[in-house]
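the two lines:
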Amino acid sequence: MSTDTHLAPPAPARPPSLARRNGARDFGRRLIADRWAAAGAGAVLFFLVVAAAAPVLCAIAGQDPYTYDLDALSESGVPRGFGGGISAEHWFGVEPMTGRDLFAIVVHGSRTSILVGAGATAVSVLLGVVLGITAGFYGGWYDRVVTRIVDVLLGFPYLIFVIALGAIAPTSLPKPLLLVGVLAIFGWPSIARVVRSQTLALKRRTFVVASAALGAGGWHLLVRQLLPNLTATIIVYATITIPSMIGAEAALSFLGVGVPPPTPAWGRSIGEAIAWVQTDPMFLVFPGAALFLATLGFNLLGDGLRDAFDPKTRGLRR
Amino acid sequence: MRILRLVSGRLLSMVGTLLVISLLTYLVFVLLPSDPAQLSCGRPCTPERLADARAFMGYDQPWLQQYLAFLGGLFGGRTFGSGAAAVHCAAPCFGYSFQLNESVTQLILDRIPVTFSIAIGAAVLWLILGVGAGVVSAVRRGTAIDRVAMTFSTVGVSAPSYLVGLLGILLFGFTLNMVPVNGYVPLTEDPVGWLWHLVLPWCVLALISAAVYARLTRGQMLEVLGEDYIRTARAKGLRERKVVGRHALRNVLIPVVTVFGIDLGSLLGGAVITERVFSMPGLGALLLDAVGNVDLPLIVGVTLFSAFLIILANFLVDLAYGVLDPRVAR
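prediction for all of em together
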C-alpha cells in the first residue's frame, strides 16, 4: 500500500486469469491473508447454513414464521415487553400486528433472498457469458446488435419496469420464478460486457491464433481456449452479482411487488417496518441487519476474490 | 462538422432505441392476459358493455394498430370514444387513465417535480461527495483518511438505501427531531420547507451511490497519477493542486461520466424507493398506486415515460462526454 505509485510503471492490462500461473496454493493463501475477504466468506457460509437449516433452527426455537401470537401484542398491536417482545420464547421478538415470531421470519427470509439471488445470478451469468463470448469472438453485425442491447438494458430504469411487470404478470406464474427471470434479463448485460471485452483481448493472443491456425473450429476455440481463461473473471462477477440481486429482490419486496406474503422476505419486513419505526424499531433492525450483513459478506468475498485472482488490482478496487 | 455528425448520429440511434423499447414494452404489456376493460365495465358486466368498454379504450384493435395509435397520440394527441362521452388526450399523450379520468401525461406532470427534486439533488450531492472522497483517498493513499473512506465505501455499497433512510428517520427525525420525516412541499410554495423536507432523502440516496463513485474515482485517479504526462506536469514544477485538479481530474472524470450515464436509470429507481421511505407523492408513488389498482394505461404510460426520460438523459450524457473528451468527437 505504501509503495510510491508516482514512479511505478502503469499497470499493463492483463486478464486476471494470468494470476493462475502462481498456482492454486498461492491463490488460497492470498485469499485467506485478506482478512476482510475471509470475514466475507465466513458471513456467506453462515447465511448459507442458516438458509439450509432454517426448518431445523425454527424447530429448535419452537417457532414457525406463520403462526399468529396475539398474546404477545398490546391492544395497539405493538409487541409487549423489551426490544419488540424479545423473550426466551421469541428470540428476536415478534412482528407487530400479527405477533408472528421474528426469528423464524428472518431465518426463513434468508431462503427467499439466497434462492432468488443465486437463481437470478445463475441465469444472468449463463446468458452473459454465452452472449458476451460469442459477441466478442464472432464480431460483425451480431456483436453490434448484442452491444447495443447491452447498452440500452444497462441504462434502463429496470426497477420501474419490474414493478410494472409484477402487477400484470399472470398469477399462475410463481412469483419467485418471475423475479428470477426478470432480474436475470436486466442482470446479464454487465456480465456480457466484461466477458466480451476480455474475449476481444484474448482472441488476438498467440495461443488462440495458433489453435485457429492448426484448424481448430469455433466451438473448440470458444470452449477449450477462451472459456478457461475467462473463468476467473466469471467467478468474480458471479460473486458480486449475487449481492446486487439479493438487494434487487429485497427492494422489490420492500415496495410490495416482490415475493408475496406470507412467504417471509427481508425486504417486505423492512417495508412493513416503516409504519412501526417509531414504536417498534427492533422490527426494522433484525431483518435490516440480516440483509445488510448478507450483502456485505458477498461484496467482501467478491472483492477478495478479485484481488486474489489479480494482485495488480489490490487497493485499486473497482 | 464532426460534432454535427456525432450529434445527428446519436440522435438517430436514440430515436431508433425509443421505437424499439416502446414497441417491446407495449407488446409485453398488451399481450399479457390483463383486461382493463373488464375492470371498468362495472356490474353486471354484460358482454355488450364489455365490448363497448373495449371499443371505447381502443383495446378491440389488433396490437399493432393499438401501438400505432399510441405513437400517434404521443405526437398528435388522441380522442377516446366519440360523441358526448368522448375524452381527449392532448399531445404528448402517454395514454389515458380511465380509472382516474385523467391523461397519463397530466398525472406524470403533477408528480414529476417531486421525483426530480429528489433525483437531481441526490445526484449533485453524490457526485461531489463521491468524486471528492475518491480524489482525497487517491492522493492520500494508504493514510487513515484513505482507509476510513474506503471502509465507508464498502459498507455503503452493501447498505440498501431504504434501510439507511429508515434509520435516518429514526435518528434525525424521531429521536433528534431535526428534520421532518415525511411529505413534500413544492419549491414554489415554500423554498425553505422544500429544502428541509429533502435534506434527509438527498443524503440517504447520495451516500449509497457516493460509495460507488468514491471507489471508482480513487481507482482511476491512482491509475492516472502513474501516467507519464503527470510526471511531466510535476517535473515542470506545477503545484500539486494544479496537477491533480487540472491535469489528472479531467481524465478521471471521463469514466465517472460514463458510469453516471448508466446509473441514471437506477437513480430514478432509487428515487422511487426514497419516495416510499419518506412518503412523498412522486412518480414512484404514482406507479405503485397504479399497480395496486391494476390501472394498465397508467402503468404502461409511466414505464414508457421513464424509459424515454432515461434514454434522453443518456443522450445528453453522451454529448457531455464529447465535450469532456475531444477524442470522442473524432
